[in-house]
Structures are given as structure tokens and as C-alpha cells.
Write a structure and sequence with these properties.
Shape: elongated
Strand order of the largest sheet: 3-2-1-4-5
Number of helices: 6
């Protein structure tokens, strides 16, 4: 008995584009309930603690770049971990907002708190001025300063309203100086109380991040998994 002949596909007419092949997508791997709980606790606690700790050290300009980059990496890892805890849903967006606040607020607000509690008004002389232009074309100035009494001044620069241009070179002014040399100097007219209030917003953002992570884990654990569906 002769073997059956395989059916041959008819060739497509000229100008006809073949339909795209369907790609079978594998379902995203789901964590076990125990892994969800562990990941949620790690992401919810370590992410804000590490970020605030690193950015607190970044209040010293000598460590600002060295600590800001790891803080950003911690935030990225926290968002990825939150995605494993809750792959879909609305929780990720307020968590990202809380993470951005944790990235922006701690350094400036902790500097303001340090200066408002222990800063000393000090007379300095302007030795140089440097300009910088942002994307909108706005020019900002930073002045090099040194103490008039000749004593060393850590982080001898000041910006903001205390420095308006090269015309300030050679003039004297009073600035707020941290005696411990940790926070950089600030002009006298700097609103430290407003910037220092960012510490409370930072604490609220850290608590919000942890709460959202635990809520995401709880919602994930309450959803029936394919394994549970099969047992029913």
C-alpha cells in the first residue's frame, strides 16, 4: 500500500503578505505565598531605611554623589521587588511617587535641620563666582567663600540669594556655618524652617512605601492561585 502523500500548502499569490505566526506567551512565574511575604517585608522595610540612610550621609557634599547613586539603585531594586509582590494593579504608582519623594527630600531637609539647630553666623569673604545655566536658560551662581578670620571652612561654597554674580567677589557677608563641618554653608535668608519640614514628609513617604508594599502582598495572597483553583 502506497504511503499517504503529505498535503502541500498552496503558494501565496504575488503581493500577498503571510499572516504573522502566533507567539505563545508563557504565564509570568508566580511566587509562593511564603516568598511573597518575605519579599514584601524586605522591600517594605529595607528600601526606605537604606534610601534615607544613604541620603542622610549625602548631606555632606563630599559623599553626595557616592551615596545618591546607590540610593537610586536601591529605589530601582525596591520597585522591581514590588513588581514581584504585585505584578499588576494600582499599588505600583503611589509607591513610585513615594519613592521619588524619598529620593528628593531627605538630603535638603536634613541639611536644613542641621543648620537650624547648630549653625553659627560667620563672616566670610567671597573669593570667586561661578555661573551655571539650566535647561530653561535660567542662570544661577555659586560663590567660593572663606572665613575672614583665616580659620578653615569646610565646603567653602554658597549659592542662592547669597551669591548674585562676579560683582560679589571681594565683598564680605554673613552666612550660616555648621561648626561640625557636615552640612554646607547657607545664606542667612534661606528659609530653613520650610526646607526642614521635609523631614516629616520623608517620614510619611517612608511609612506610605511600607504600607503599600504590605497591602500589595495581602492582595496577592488573597487571590486564588492556579494550584488552589485545581484543588477545588
Amino acid at each position: 500500500m502506497a504511503g499517504k502523500k503529505k498535503k502541500q500548502k498552496r503558494p501565496l499569490a504575488d503581493g500577498v503578505v503571510p499572516p504573522p505566526k502566533r507567539v505563545r506567551r508563557r504565564p509570568a512565574p508566580q511566587l509562593s505565598p511564603r516568598a511573597v511575604r518575605r519579599t514584601a517585608w524586605l522591600v517594605g522595610l529595607l528600601t526606605p531605611v537604606l534610601m534615607v540612610g544613604l541620603l542622610a550621609i549625602a548631606t555632606d557634599p563630599d559623599y553626595q554623589v557616592l551615596c545618591t547613586i546607590p540610593a537610586f539603585l536601591v529605589l530601582s531594586a525596591g520597585i522591581i521587588g514590588l513588581g514581584f509582590v504585585r505584578p499588576s494593579g494600582w499599588v505600583i504608582w503611589p509607591a513610585v511617587l513615594a519613592g521619588v519623594l524619598l529620593m528628593v527630600l531627605p538630603t535638603a531637609s536634613i541639611r536644613a535641620q542641621i543648620l537650624s539647630h547648630r549653625a553659627v553666623e560667620t563672616e566670610v569673604v567671597v573669593t570667586g563666582a561661578h555661573s551655571a545655566k539650566d535647561r530653561s536658560g535660567k542662570v544661577s551662581w555659586t560663590c567660593d567663600i572663606r572665613r575672614t578670620d583665616g580659620q578653615p571652612l569646610p565646603h567653602g561654597q554658597v549659592g542662592g540669594f547669597g551669591c548674585s554674580g562676579r560683582s560679589d567677589v571681594g565683598s564680605t557677608m554673613n552666612v550660616l556655618v555648621d561648626p561640625e563641618g557636615w552640612a554646607p554653608p547657607a545664606p542667612l535668608d534661606d528659609d530653613l524652617s520650610f526646607r526642614g519640614s521635609g523631614v516629616y514628609v520623608t517620614a510619611a513617604a517612608a511609612a506610605l512605601w511600607g504600607l503599600l508594599t504590605l497591602v500589595a502582598a495581602r492582595r496577592t495572597l488573597r487571590e486564588p492561585t492556579p494550584a488552589r483553583k485545581g484543588r477545588r
